[in-house]
Specification:
This protein has 449 residues and is mostly beta strands. Helices cover 4% and strands 45% of the residues. The chain has one helix and 38 strands. Strand 37 and strand 38 form a beta hairpin.
Length: 449
């Protein structure tokens, strides 16, 4: 609650002589407007835009190691040691090193490529994944809390992680030197087998200490996806059924049988927003279900092969480059079409169309109608970031520097942030920071729109 102290001695009606005439207000307002027009070139005052250079990380940075922003921090990866090492940096002014830790990758050194090391922050732990092995460290100190030999999926905001471990019959390991033909089935750690798994063990973990909270064991091979919502949940797709499981307890909430086509069950399952997409082969088909209720929404035929498929991220597409249709996930019907050679992705609440050949952004379109919302012509590239964060754009200016701008979710306009010097390489961004590789290490900016 805000308290406003009133001036008890103020006159209820100040003397008229103390008020300037209205014409003075008009002259002052007009003068101020002219000054703003002269300074800003007719643009609206951008008082909310903040662009501040924080400084550089000049320590030795691996030239091929990824740079990642997670949880408001910068992480760098170095592969020159016995194991890949991850360093956490606080984006202060200047940036400060917080901790460094070697990430146990398992197996022989060099098998795990450094580019496969990923960083995710979940509450007070940071999950470092090298290949599929995951190490959880304390976010403040970098000390190891627990580890898992297989990948861990985070259920956002719940403190729960999920692992999927396939169990095979002994003696089904594939001899890779033999080169024998036939279908292969892979374990959670990547070992090939000649038979499908007997069962899959799905576990819920406490992310703070790695303790197993629940286990469910569906038969055969399954896919597991996290479901959005106030309460964490996972959707398990098997060859026969869909099962919605509570993320905190592992308790089955709902279950439904899946249709079979030509006597075959589905080949894969995935989630697109609140819609579960179940894909079949021979014949090609796709069936959609509402993820929380498991109500079937629609079914459509899918071509077995597409000559020039487009890359569609978080967008339901049909067709190919030059003849691409965007479908409504709720109905399976075409919403709008694209006759250009573009790839699609959701960014800043819009559909980002990117030239398939050059990778340069073309425009931002309305997700429902395809109507152009923001023309991105002239911007040479976009900076990596999450789909729901601002879209950061960049281009070179004539004097050799690099200009950065942002499109904020819900605002169909480009906000110019500022100019950085020349010599910048790979960049990454999140909702608050931009980091770019340079000849002297890394340079970091803070921004707000």
């Amino acid at each position: 609650m805000a308290l406003i102290e009133l001036d008890r001695e103020a006159h209820l009606d100040p003397p008229h002589a103390s008020r300037p005439p209205l014409s003075a207000y008009r002259r002052t307002g007009l003068l101020l407007a002219l000054v703003l027009l002269a300074v800003l070139g007719g643009a609206a005052p951008a008082a909310a835009i903040r662009w501040r250079y924080l400084g550089a990380v000049t320590a030795s940075i691996a030239p091929d190691g990824p740079i990642q922003l997670a949880g408001g921090r910068l992480y760098t990866v170095d592969s020159t040691g016995r194991e890949p090492s991850v360093t956490a940096w606080g984006p202060a002014a200047p940036p400060v090193r917080l901790w460094t830790i070697e990430v146990p990758a398992g197996g022989e050194r060099g098998i795990i490529p450094v580019a496969s090391v990923t960083v995710r922050q979940a509450g007070d732990v940071v999950l470092l994944t090298a290949g599929v092995a995951t190490t959880a460290v304390d976010a403040d100190t970098g000390l190891i809390r627990w580890s898992s030999p297989i990948a861990v999926t985070v259920l956002p905001g719940s403190g729960i992680g999920v692992t999927v471990d396939r169990v095979f019959r002994p003696g089904t390991e594939y001899d890779q030197e033999s080169g024998d033909p036939g279908p292969l089935y892979f374990s959670a750690t990547g070992e090939p087998h000649t038979e499908p798994p007997l069962r899959t063990e799905v576990r819920g973990l406490d992310l703070s200490d790695g303790r197993t909270l629940w286990t469910t064991t569906p038969g055969g091979s399954v896919t597991v996806d996290q479901v959005r919502g106030a309460e964490p949940a996972v959707l398990i797709t098997s060859s026969r059924r869909l099962t919605l499981v509570a993320g905190r307890t592992g308790k089955p909430l709902r279950e439904t049988e899946l249709p079979q086509f030509a006597g075959q069950g589905p080949a894969s399952g995935s989630l697109l927003g609140d819609v579960a997409l179940i894909s079949y082969q021979n014949p090609g088909r796709q069936v959609a279900f509402e993820a929380r209720t498991l109500r079937q929404l629609w079914s459509r035929e899918v071509p077995e092969l597409v000559a020039d498929p487009a890359d569609c991220q978080d967008v339901l597409c049909d067709g190919e480059h030059g003849d691409l249709r965007v479908l409504d996930p709720g109905t399976g019907q075409a919403r709008w079409g694209v006759q250009e050679d573009v790839d699609l992705a959701i960014r800043a609440g819009y559909v980002l169309e990117t030239d398939a050949a050059s990778g340069e952004p073309v425009r931002l379109a309305d997700p429902r109608t395809g109507a152009p919302r923001v023309d991105l012509a002239g911007w040479a590239g976009q900076v990596g970031g999450a789909a729901d964060e601002p879209l950061l754009l960049s281009r070179k200016e004539k004097r050799g520097g690099r200009v950065f701008a942002a499109v904020v979710p819900g605002h169909a306009e480009i906000h110019r942030l500022g100019v950085a010097g020349s010599g910048l390489g790979e960049c990454d961004s999140d909702a608050h920071y931009l980091v770019c590789r340079s000849s002297g290490g890394l340079r970091i900016w803070a921004y707000r729109v």
